[in-house]
Amino acid sequence: MIFRRYNTSVLAVVALGLLLIYYYIRQPLILSPFGAKILANQGTTLALAALAQLVVVLTGGVDLSVGAVVSLSNCIAATYMGSHPASVIAVCVLTLAVGAGAGLVNGVLVAYGRIQPIIVTLATLYIFSGLALMVRPQPGGLVPPFYANALTGGWGYLPYAMVALFVMLFAVWTPLMRSRLGTAIRAVGDNPGGAHMSGINVPRTLILAYVMGGVFAAAAGLYLTAQTTSGDAAIGTSYTLNSVAAVVFGGALLGGGRGVAPGPVIAAYFLSIIISVLFAAGISPFYQSVFQGGILMVVLVFGNLWTLRTRNWLTILKN
Amino acid sequence: MGEENMQRRDFLRTTLAGAAAIALNDTLPGMAIAGARECFSPWDSGTQTFAWKKKQGPYKIALSNSYIGNMWRTEMIQIAKAYTEEPAVKRDIKEFMVSSAGNDVSAQIAQMNQMILAGVDAIVLDAASPTGLNSVIDQAVAAGILVVSFDNVVTTKKAVWVNQNQFEMGQKWANWLVQRTGDKGNILVVRGVAGTFVDQERMKGGEAVFKKYPGIKITEVYGKWDDGTAQKVVANALASGTKFDAVWSEGGDTGVVRAFQQAGLKMPPIAGEAENGFRTLAAKDKFPMLSIGQSPALGALGIKVAVAILKGEKLPQSIATPQPTATNATLKPGVNYFPNLPDSFFTPISISDCGLNFTAEKILKIKV
């Protein structure tokens, strides 16, 4: 039963497992407290960004503004954080609120403006990046060491990044997705007409999904701030498409309605760690991105090999 | 060793040159001015000497590059590889590895962590963000690894900087143009990528000059250092009907020239970067040109600096390198422009003052 529920994530788990084994063969030092810490730190921002993308993808949309919200929250956090614990907490809350606000704008435009999500978020992508550039025209800013250490440090083999991610996953994501809202989000993504007929408030569900996405993207930005200890308005760009890749790789359907959290999160780690592995393997930098894309493609094709065995295309189309 | 004196003398010369060089630039060939400077000049009077513990060679050196999608970065890596293959250099280098993370700060952090794990002696760095790597640089330094940043330098003082002075570059372009237009006129300013350190510094240098002349009016567009983008935005600016008396451009200059050609306008004086297409067109069409460019040999110079410091030499923490300059008078095919190579090729492949001399044939043969 559990396996059925999570079987879309199996591909990502197997891929990450193989990648780590190969990495360990090339660089045995990753099995040290420092190694565990860098592995965990590497993928956490993308993992949070992938959750932000996943909740929007579940509604049948796609959020191109994820990277811009990551940049914006990174700039806000690094610029206003200060060094007093109280101001740090206040700025973190403010940053998450700005993320929620960004999601609200997206959500309202999608739900009531009746504009395609891809266009709405493309437009807001420019707006949010512009705001980030206004907050921080030049890279810089300051983050207190205790903030950076609380998120990127580690206790023996336990990296704090894992703790932060699990808190977001089990204290925020899971309760929300198991609530009526979560069910509504999946229903709207699967069949908006049917969801409406069953009495689900579709616009409200859409808005809340985008708000949730905004909050997770802002959380990704906060994590990135701890990792880089500074703000840079151009930092988030790569998270937009990588988060989409992580979501698809993690087994969610871009058409909406289907997808569970573990897959995209694990896929995010795979996508983030792969560049270190290519480096450890001594691949020329010029071909690294070719290999990165190639490995991703091979993994995805391999994951879909079963489709060759089925007798009837209907089974595939239904899946 | 009199090193301090040498540095001060050189600093004086650099700052004085800041005022005078521009006037000189026109009469003297550009390389002559560059030739007057020593290789490891300190950035300014506040520059400290970098303290680092001497280490026994040969060394394991890693080049951490960010973006790889343009000709400059490709040449930079080719030149760095060619440099480490030179017999005199090879003796000091046990292992040399290169990695490119793309313009993705966390990927570059990961890559540098990987280099820390691999136990290298020095990391030579072209950063994806001037500030985003500071924490991982702290970790590297704590692990006893020397970090030398070049081109897109980082802000932390724990790393050595090797770069051309971008402010000065913008200033030189502007001064040359102002002389050409007679202290007045409409100047089209083609900027780079918004929000980057290089764009801001070059523009500040340009503005420092322009604002001194009330008769100068500037119009800004963003060409993103890219020929195609620059051509498009310049064409748009020309379509607005404004007559421009000169162009100050941070890059994508081949595109800038093409946009003027396509509009059928007379070519104004253009001060810009050092792309091959720009210089080739200037040689062919004889329009007034000043070309000062970021040298792709900076990566090799970073390696040279790293090896020197590891060997125990005392160098400044920030090193300002010479500005490779060419004007119409100094253009020479096969030397500072290459009619048979692509437009996108970056011409200043050698930094002769630092003993870095390469030929286009040699570096293009190197596999990246």
Automatic annotation (TrEMBL), chain A:
GO terms of molecular function: transmembrane transporter activity
Membrane topology category: Multi-pass membrane protein
GO cellular component, one term: plasma membrane
Coiled coil: none
Major subcellular site: membrane
Transmembrane segments: 6-25, 88-111, 118-137, 157-176, 206-224, 236-254, 266-284, 290-308
PANTHER family: ABC TRANSPORTER PERMEASE PROTEIN YPHD-RELATED-RELATED
Protein name: Monosaccharide ABC transporter membrane protein, CUT2 family
Automatic annotation (TrEMBL), chain B:
Gene3D superfamilies linked to this entry: 3.40.50.2300
A GO CC annotation given for this chain: cell envelope
Single GO molecular function: carbohydrate binding
Location of this chain's protein in the cell: Cell envelope
Coiled-coil region list: none
Pfam families, per database record: Peripla_BP_4
Domain Periplasmic binding protein, residue spans: 61-314
Keywords carried by this UniProt record: Signal
Family: Belongs to the bacterial solute-binding protein 2 family.
Protein name: Monosaccharide ABC transporter substrate-binding protein, CUT2 family
Organism: Allgaiera indica
